[in-house]
Design goal:
heterodimer, A: mainly beta, 13-stranded mixed sheet, four-stranded mixed sheet, 3 helices, B: alpha/beta, eight-stranded parallel sheet, 18 helices, 26 strands, 23% strand
């Protein structure tokens, strides 16, 4: 049994969609779903006031319309599937435990923040703090997979503790800041400061990066690296750090795209 | 305005009432003999009636609490309350905003709370926040254990002048009691040095912690202050500090006891560690409690740990530095000119962590091994050991061996093996719970109109929906825990402010402060002296320092005879 929600009107103020998780809707009659109360700005409104809905065959929850002002889609969801046919707002899949979210447009900041399982796929771009912790906290993404086919913003995987973030496009500054474990793959370029204060985990950058932080040690040159059993062709310069934090994270930077980093080859194997 | 609370089972330890069915009459904010037939009736059948809770040690207001709030957006994120009738919105689990703090205390049946560490120069801030904390009566303790002037006076043997200065300080800061935090040690750490034993000299001051404690204890009894000196002992950062705790009590044991004690040692769980390293740390609760059981001049509060995430904050900057190094968590630290220091570090107590599990055991062992419930108060040193909202959990642990065993079965195995807790059978009665949460704390604070339900007392009353005659707390501790989480009624100054665990009326309590009487010529001399010192030491002008009475919303001065 599936459900389609279609936006009736433009959203002018943020709307909190956290009650709209598949496990929360399962098996409920339409009338009850229409009556689910949400916050729109500082008002409480029933779900039926902003969405038309119908039941269809097949599974999952499909949402149509421009939801860039809709927050916390799939909050804490444990199972089932959400498809957004359009853009989504902040906090998509926040703290989700399982299931699948697909966004066909762009997603806002904090995509999959504090995620602990499941999978998120964004066909467009994502904002800042993909898979990161909440501000001030040290609990980032723990498990699961986040795939972004476009670009992502700053601080991808801040305080990440596990799982996989796969960005096919470019990212901003500080991917993997404070990272403890897990893997971040960046298919495009990175604006810099990758892995600042990282303690563990891996960051793989296929594109260009202007420089590597001075607190990283050149440790190796590798032909390829595996992400989830998928071999990724390099070759890669491998850096280790962040030594400022006694970290043992690894930063893989594509050699071919970064000829300006060739100075590091003569440092390989040198022990400080 | 009259109330009649009918048919409740009453626990009023100060008046020797231990679970009797009786009616309580209230008129105009006080408890009276009887009321007219027009009085509003509160049916408390099947419920227990106690005086409103009195919390002797809970960090709820002031610059360090606010620093904690600023530092921890994540503490607000998971715990927020939207606006409801009679209450403002608020945030925060371990460091709630001021309004939420007041509401949550009232919902648990607490009506009086003391902020135990206010740096004098920041007292204005403390009072501004206390004024914005509704529902409860409150007050704050003034930090004096690292004050330059106090140390100077005591070193030079000028005990009279020190007495005058302390009196001036209490009045200037609208404080309620003399608080010592790591006496001399905070100042020493500011110069990069550690004070470890009671007889180590504080660099640049030529005085030892022992002399500070003895001196201020003497001053406290000379001024006849209502509450004894409130001491956070030295050496909190070290394993083996239980010896310091005992030595601290011993050092004032030969001074005439105040009424009824001359020293209150606070959050002893943190300074009750035995052993020589973090690997072999054990509980020193047995040694500490045997001292307290033998000697009647000392009392303490527990500072129980609650497993989970919280925010630690104390004027003991050096201890906070250690915690920051141990945990790797973010921190804030401050040196307060001439007076004290402070630190704030978020921390998560884990069941699986050996040291945390031992700490959890130390707190409960202290509460269970000290025979006299009048001299061991229930606190979590909010938010250092855990948020005050978890008091019901502590009550369940104290009342039920079964509840303790359940938690014991989940903690670190080595810690479980080394603790004495599994062998302790004692279970608190409801009367003893009423003592350690209300009656004893009120008595220790010298608040004669609080903590009891006798005629003439303030009508601060808590009613909990637990049928004392039909349930066995030891077996059904969950019912007890639930009842204490949300009071059926909280009555503040004779008005119903909480019903069924929900705020139904917002009121603002009084701020208690102590006004000691000192000979005017001594005061003149001290004022001249302090003025001079201000020119020399302070960034603040002497004239701008004292807080006038009119600055507070509802000040209530308690006179002390000097």
């Amino acid at each position: 049994m599936g459900l389609i929600l279609e936006l009736k009107r433009d959203l002018r103020v943020p709307i909190d969609m956290s009650p709209v998780a598949p496990d929360n809707l399962d098996g409920k009659p339409l009338d009850e779903i229409r009556g689910l109360m949400l916050w729109e700005g500082n008002r409480r409104i029933p779900l039926g006031e902003v969405f038309d809905m119908e039941k269809v065959d097949g599974g999952g929850l499909t949402i149509l319309g421009d939801l860039s002002k809709a927050r916390r889609l799939g909050y804490m969801m444990r199972s089932g599937e959400i498809k957004v046919r359009g853009n989504a707002g902040l906090y998509v899949g926040e703290a989700m435990r399982g299931g699948m979210i697909t966004v066909e447009g762009d997603a806002g900041a904090w995509l999959g923040s504090r995620m602990a399982g499941g999978e998120i796929v964004v066909e467009g771009d994502a904002g800042d703090f993909v898979g990161s912790s909440y501000r001030g906290s040290r609990e980032g993404m723990r498990k699961g997979i986040i795939k972004v086919k476009g670009d992502a913003g700053d601080e991808v995987g801040c305080w990440m503790r596990g799982g996989l973030i796969w960005i096919e496009g470019n990212v901003g500054c500080f991917p993997g800041i404070h990272m403890i474990d897990g893997t971040i793959f960046i298919g495009g370029d990175c604006q810099g400061r990758a892995g600042a204060e990282m303690l563990g985990g891996r960051i793989i950058i296929q594109g260009r990066v202007s420089t590597v932080l001075p607190s990283f040690r050149t440790s190796d040159l590798k032909g390829k690296v595996k992400v989830d059993d998928t071999p990724i062709q390099g070759p890669f310069y491998v850096f280790e750090g962040d030594l400022n934090e006694d970290g043992s994270g690894r930063l893989y930077v594509n050699k071919g795209r970064n000829p300006h980093l060739s100075w590091c080859e003569k440092l390989i194997g040198e022990v400080d | 305005m009259e109330l009649l609370i009918k048919n409740g089972i009453v626990y009023d330890p100060l008046n020797g009432i231990d679970g009797e069915r009786m009616d309580i009459a209230v008129r105009d904010g006080r408890i009276v003999e009887d009321v007219s037939p027009k009085a509003e009736v509160v049916d408390a059948s099947g419920m227990i009636v106690m005086p409103g809770g009195v919390d002797i040690h809970s960090h709820i207001a002031g610059s360090k609490v606010n620093t904690g709030r600023l530092m921890r957006p994540e503490d607000h994120y998971g715990d927020y309350e939207q606006r409801r009738p009679h209450r403002r919105a608020g945030v925060g689990r371990s460091i709630p905003s001021t309004y939420t703090t007041g509401y949550r205390y009232a919902e648990m049946g607490y009506t009086t709370v003391f902020e135990p560490a206010s740096p004098p120069i920041k007292a204005r801030h403390t009072h501004e926040e206390l004024d914005e904390t509704p529902m409860i009566d409150k007050g704050c303790f003034t930090l004096l254990g690292n004050n330059w002037l106090v140390m100077d006076y005591l070193r030079d043997g000028m005990i009279e002048e020190c007495k005058g200065f302390v009196a001036w300080m209490l009045e200037a800061t609208k404080g309620y009691a003399v608080k010592l935090v790591n006496p001399g040690g905070v100042e020493a750490w500011g110069w990069g040095r550690y004070v470890i034993g009671l007889d180590d000299e504080v660099p640049r001051f030529g005085i030892t912690p022992r002399e500070i404690i003895e001196g201020l204890c003497r001053v406290n009894s000379m001024l006849k202050l209502p509450h004894p000196i409130h001491v956070h002992t030295n050496n909190m950062a070290r394993v083996g500090n239980y010896e310091t705790t005992i030595a601290t009590m011993e050092t004032v044991s030969n001074q005439a006891a105040g009424s009824p004690c001359n020293i209150h040692v606070t959050h002893v769980q943190f300074t009750g560690r035995k052993g020589s390293s973090w690997v072999n740390v054990r509980s020193g609760a047995e040694d500490i409690s045997s001292y307290v059981n033998r000697r009647s001049h000392a009392e303490l509060d527990v500072g129980q740990i609650i497993f989970g995430d919280t925010t630690t904050m104390t004027a003991d900057g050096s201890f906070q530095y250690l915690l920051h190094i141990l945990s790797g968590n973010k921190w804030a630290n401050a040196d307060v000119e001439v007076e004290t220091g402070a630190g704030v570090v978020p921390y998560t107590y884990r069941r699986s962590n050996y040291v945390n599990a031992v700490q959890w055991g130390i707190g409960l062992e202290l509460a269970l091994l000290i025979e006299d419930p009048w001299r061991v108060h229930m606190t979590t040193d909010h938010p250092n050991g855990g948020p005050f909202t978890e008091y019901p959990r502590v009550i369940a642990w104290l009342m039920s061996r079964r509840a303790r065993d359940k938690t014991l079965s989940k903690i670190n195995k080595t810690a479980r093996r080394r603790l004495n807790l599994p062998g302790i059978d004692r279970e608190y009665t409801l009367g003893e719970i009423a003592t350690v949460t209300r009656a004893a704390t009120a008595r220790s604070l010298g608040l004669t109109s609080k903590g009891h339900l006798g005629v003439g007392a303030d009508a601060d009353i808590a009613i909990y929906a637990v049928d004392a005659q039909r349930i066995d707390p030891s077996r059904e501790y969950k019912l007890v825990r639930r009842a204490f989480r949300r009071a059926a009624y909280t009555i503040k100054d004779g008005e119903i402010v909480v019903k069924d665990g929900e705020i139904v009326k917002t009121v603002f309590g009084r701020t208690f402060w102590v006004k000691p009487r000192v000979e005017e010529e001594l005061m003149e001399k001290v004022r001249e002296d302090v003025k001079e010192k201000f020119e020399e030491y302070y960034t603040v002008r002497f004239g701008n320092y004292p807080i006038p009475d009119s600055y507070l919303k509802r000040p209530h001065a308690i006179k002390a005879g000097g």
